[in-house]
């Protein structure tokens, strides 16, 4: 690069920083986390904004801060309460990591979000972008905060054709972003960069004519702004067909449906859902094809039996999708009727025997599914009384419950290689009012609300 080219590039950088800040002060959105520099609020907002639109986040941010106004309040809350407050935002590991990190801040820094780079990086769930955002926005430290919006802006303005999906490109972008930060203006400048990418330099159909830095944008001048940034396409998520059981209670459980808690770790850990299992591939059909209705009901019935659930599929109710970064679940949901005859599996963790004795007397002679096993995180022991559990005929109630160990179901494999029902976890019979006590992934929240809407409409 010649001396003249270097000079022109430097002038372009100065133009960019100066005009971007001027634009930001005039056009910035009034967002709740921008009204002060509370590091905790900024941290919460940045975690929520990962993979989520601003207009979606705003009401969740208000509710979250109202429920957990300080680091200490979040650190001390039951996980179930945190997940319930996060319900609907998705990517629930964000909420768990945020609470874990809040406990780190409480224990190691007295509840004050640290302003040291290494300390912020040590917090669970905090990567380079989030660390840079917290340090720059809350503490005005000259740290780059490079997300997708920022990489798109920089790629276009400086005509950078590096693949932004690659690590070296991110490092290069971070160095460039750091060079652009005007002295003493890190907080506003980084927010301005993000704002420009969100409002003007959008992924499709960028609004170049309203851009404050259009005059020196190399990508626009070269006529390739819409083809930038360069990004290798990610591997598409793998489709997975699943059979779900919406089990309608009878008798004491009339008006309720059965839900289960997911395992303690892994995908959607400890959240609540309708029981569901992988569907075997349709014989002779293309991959991902839906199993014939009769075959699906038969497989679901077998799964329910092997899980020890006394219910039988009656009809296909609806289909629903849930998308993860690596999997797309297509749920074929079947209405099922609770039946007498089969007991619920042994509890995965023992209930307190003293509590159980006080509540279980009425359940001893009942042999149909009666709900509940282990106390999940944040659930009250009174659940036992509302939806008790009875073992099979002749079983000794005290011997079932006098254990501190976890008793998992056996996992078998069908002849076609599909896995037998997953660990059932804790289970509950719930009505609509009970839903407020449990955290559900979005797809199950919508399914349950749709079901109860229909039931309430029939009553009217």
From TrEMBL:
Its EC number is 3.2.2.31. Signal peptide: none annotated. SUPFAM superfamilies: DNA-glycosylase (SSF48150), Nudix (SSF55811). Gene3D superfamilies: Helix-hairpin-Helix base-excision DNA repair enzymes (C-terminal), Hypothetical protein, domain 2, Nucleoside Triphosphate Pyrophosphohydrolase. One of its GO terms (molecular function) is 8-oxo-7,8-dihydroguanine DNA N-glycosylase activity. CDD domains: ENDO3c, NUDIX_DNA_Glycosylase_C-MutY. Coiled coil: none annotated. GO terms for biological process: base-excision repair; mismatch repair. Transmembrane segments: none annotated. Its cofactor is [4Fe-4S] cluster. The keyword 4Fe-4S applies. SMART domains: ENDO3c (SM00478), FES (SM00525). Keywords: 4Fe-4S, DNA damage, DNA repair, DNA-binding, Glycosidase, Hydrolase, Iron, Iron-sulfur, Metal-binding. The keyword DNA repair applies. InterPro entries: A/G_AdeGlyc_MutY, DNA_glycosylase, Endonuclease3_FeS-loop_motif, Endouclease-III_FeS-bd_BS, HhH-GPD_domain, HhH_base_excis_C, MIG/MutY, MutY_C. It catalyses: Hydrolyzes free adenine bases from 7,8-dihydro-8-oxoguanine:adenine mismatched double-stranded DNA, leaving an apurinic site. Residues 48-199 form the HhH-GPD domain. Pfam families: EndIII_4Fe-2S (PF10576), HhH-GPD (PF00730), NUDIX_4 (PF14815). Belongs to the Nth/MutY family. Base excision repair (BER) glycosylase that initiates repair of A:oxoG to C:G by removing the inappropriately paired adenine base from the DNA backbone, generating an abasic site product. 8-oxoguanine (oxoG) is a genotoxic DNA lesion resulting from oxidation of guanine; this residue is misread by replicative DNA polymerases, that insert adenine instead of cytosine opposite the oxidized damaged base. Shows a powerful dicrimination of A versus C, since it does not cleave cytosine in oxoG:C pairs. PANTHER family: ADENINE DNA GLYCOSYLASE (PTHR42944). This is Adenine DNA glycosylase.
């Amino acid at each position: 690069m010649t001396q003249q080219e270097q000079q022109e590039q430097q002038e372009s950088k100065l133009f960019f920083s100066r005009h971007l800040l001027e634009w930001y002060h005039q056009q910035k959105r009034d967002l709740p986390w921008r009204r002060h520099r509370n590091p905790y609020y900024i941290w919460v907002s940045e975690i929520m904004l990962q993979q989520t639109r601003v207009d979606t986040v705003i009401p969740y941010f208000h509710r979250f801060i109202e429920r957990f106004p300080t680091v200490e309040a979040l650190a001390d809350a039951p996980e179930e309460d945190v997940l319930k407050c996060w319900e609907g935002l998705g990517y629930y590991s964000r909420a768990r990591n945020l609470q874990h990190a809040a406990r780190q801040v409480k224990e190691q820094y007295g509840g004050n979000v640290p302003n040291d780079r290494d300390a912020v990086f040590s917090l669970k769930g905090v990567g380079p972008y989030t660390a840079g955002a917290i340090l720059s926005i809350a503490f005005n430290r000259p740290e780059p905060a490079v997300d997708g919006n920022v990489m798109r802006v920089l790629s276009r303005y400086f005509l950078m054709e590096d693949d932004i999906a690659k690590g070296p490109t991110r490092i290069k972008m971070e160095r460039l972003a750091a060079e652009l930060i005007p002295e003493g203006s890190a907080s506003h400048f980084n927010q301005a960069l993000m704002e420009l990418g969100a409002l003007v330099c959008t992924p499709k159909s960028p609004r170049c004519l309203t851009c404050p830095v259009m005059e020196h944008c190399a990508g626009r001048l070269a006529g390739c702004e819409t083809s930038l940034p360069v990004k290798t396409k990610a591997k598409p998520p793998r489709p997975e067909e699943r059979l779900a059981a919406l089990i309608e209670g009878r008798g004491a459980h009339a008006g309720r449906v059965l839900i289960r808690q997911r395992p303690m770790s892994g995908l959607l850990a400890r959240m609540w859902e309708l029981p569901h299992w992988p569907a075997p591939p349709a014989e002779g059909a293309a991959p991902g094809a839906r199993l014939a209705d009769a075959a699906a009901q038969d497989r679901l019935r077998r799964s329910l039996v092997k899980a020890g659930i006394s219910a039988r599929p009656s009809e296909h109710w609806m289909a629903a999708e849930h998308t993860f970064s690596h999997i797309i679940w297509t749920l074929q949901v079947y209405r099922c009727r609770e039946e007498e005859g089969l007991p619920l599996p042994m509890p995965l963790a023992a209930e307190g025997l003293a509590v159980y004795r006080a509540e279980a007397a009425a359940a001893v002679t009942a042999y149909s599914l009666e709900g509940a096993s282990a106390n999940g995180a944040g659930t009250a022991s009174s659940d036992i009384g509302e939806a008790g559990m009875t073992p099979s005929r002749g079983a000794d109630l005290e011997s079932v419950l006098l254990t501190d160990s976890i008793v998992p179901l056996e996992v078998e494999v069908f002849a076609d290689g599909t896995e037998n029902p997953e660990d059932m976890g804790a289970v509950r019979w719930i009505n609509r009012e009970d839903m407020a006590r449990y955290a559900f992934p979005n797809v199950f929240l919508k399914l349950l609300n749709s079901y109860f809407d229909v039931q309430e409409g029939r009553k009217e």
